[in-house]
Each structure stands twice: as C-alpha cells, then as structure tokens.
Amino acid sequence: MAELVAAVVQMRSTTKPEDNIASLEALVGQAATQGAVYVQTPEMTGAICRDREALLASLRPAADDPVVAAASELARRHGIYLHIGSTAIAAPGGMAANRAFLFGPDGNQVETYDKIHMFDVDLDNGESWRESRTYVPGERAALARFSVGGADVRLGFAVCYDMRFPELFRAEALAGANVLTAPAAFTRQTGEAHWHVLLRARAIENNAFMIAAAQGGRHEDGRETYGHSIIIDPWGRVLAEVDGDEPGIAVARLDLTAVDTARGKIPNLRNRRPFATEFSAKAS
C-alpha cells in the first residue's frame, strides 16, 4: 500500500508571531507523535492582523522570518514534511506576499507558493475584505513531488479563496497531482455555507485527495473563522475533521492507490475535450 499519514493543524492565530510559533510547535508535535509524516497548518499561521499598517510594519523577508525559521527546525526535529499553509512575507513595493512553504525532513525548503486569487469581497453581514490592498497576487501554480513510506506524493498548492477557482486544481491534477491542498482562514459566514461542499467538489472533480487546514474561532483582531480542518478522499468522503473551531489536529491514513482507482472508475481527466467559446449574443 502506498500510504501517506497526513495531519491538519487547526489554529487560532493571534497578532503576535511568537505566540503562534509556540502554538505551532505544540500542535505539530502532537501530529508527529500520532505518526503523521506530512503536516499542514492554516493560512496566516504566523499572524492574523486586520490592521494593514501594523501588519506591513512587522513583516520580514523569508530569509529573516521567525515563522519560516521555526517551521524549518520543526520539520527537521520531527523528520516530517511540514507545510505552512501560508504566512505573510515582506514583498517589494511595501506590500506583502501570502506565501505557503513546504519543508522536508532535513529542514530544507522544498517548494513555495504565493496565493493567486485575492479575497476582495463584501459579505451580507457587513464584512468587507480587500486583500489586494495588502498582498501581491502570485502568478504561478506550484507542484511538489516527494516520496515517503512507499508513497509517491505529488502535492498541488492553493490557499483559501483559491478553492473557488477550479481551473487551478484542474491544472495541478493534469500535471500529476494526487494530493490537493487548500489551507485557509475561511470566514465563519462563508465557511458555514461553502467550506465542505467546495472542498469535496475539488476532490471529486479531480479524483484526488484534498487536505485543508483552517483557522478557527474569534481572533484577537476581531475576525471569526470557521475551522473544520479536513481531509477528504478522491471519492469525496471525509476521512478526518477537526470538529468545530477550537485549535487541534486531525490525522488520516491516505492510500494513494485510491487516486488511480477513482480515475479509472470516473476517467473525466482523460475524457476532457476541447470546445469552442464563441457564444452567440442572440436571444432565444
């Protein structure tokens, strides 16, 4: 069996990176103790801060970032692949990058990914978000390949709002991804409506595992996130979930041969066909 033992870490990040690093160390340690060899943390692991000026003033380049350094050391200490769902990193022009990092068991950086789609929305409950004011959007998809425990893992990256753009996940699946990811800080309102259905859909339509660690609860800066960190199989079944919005972990054993089995039963990736997009403007 080509098995990957994976864990999601659910956090309630504060505005203080040092507090979040302490939480990260404890929760990743719990996951490693339970046998996880791939551990994923949520979007904005390092800090959640709605004060744009305060956030930007606190940022450092990746080479000097304390969360990046702590993650590298944690991966090495536990001998695991540690996927920091994202943390804010200083970018040119006084902006930030919402960047994911994957570290290997030797502590070396395997891959990075910058969130492509910016959450610029106005919600019914009065919440308004303009990520493009603070973050530079990423411009490339990312895929990491590694072998662990007999499993050939091909990991596709995304962050939070990216999950509403199925073309990103389809491109990763066509490039060979058998595990898709969507670490997030989903708002409570949108999470209650769409979290489970969107993640299950991305898994089903690409016949791939989906792993999505989340932020949960009321944060120091006043925002509320949905939680429910989750691991889903290629058939859309929930394998493990953190029930509710409290910090914690969930662990599942992923039989990666299930991806080939699902793609054999429903060969939609193979059955794709090109089609014209010249739509008629005539009314019927």
Automatic annotation (TrEMBL):
<keyword id="KW-0378">Hydrolase</keyword>
<feature type="domain" description="CN hydrolase">
    <location>
        <begin position="4"/>
        <end position="256"/>
    </location>
</feature>
<dbReference type="InterPro" id="IPR036526">
    <property type="entry name" value="C-N_Hydrolase_sf"/>
</dbReference>
<protein>
    <submittedName>
        <fullName>Predicted amidohydrolase</fullName>
    </submittedName>
</protein>
<dbReference type="InterPro" id="IPR003010">
    <property type="entry name" value="C-N_Hydrolase"/>
</dbReference>
<dbReference type="InterPro" id="IPR045254">
    <property type="entry name" value="Nit1/2_C-N_Hydrolase"/>
</dbReference>
<dbReference type="Pfam" id="PF00795">
    <property type="entry name" value="CN_hydrolase"/>
</dbReference>
<dbReference type="InterPro" id="IPR001110">
    <property type="entry name" value="UPF0012_CS"/>
</dbReference>
<comment type="similarity">
    <text>Belongs to the carbon-nitrogen hydrolase superfamily. NIT1/NIT2 family.</text>
</comment>
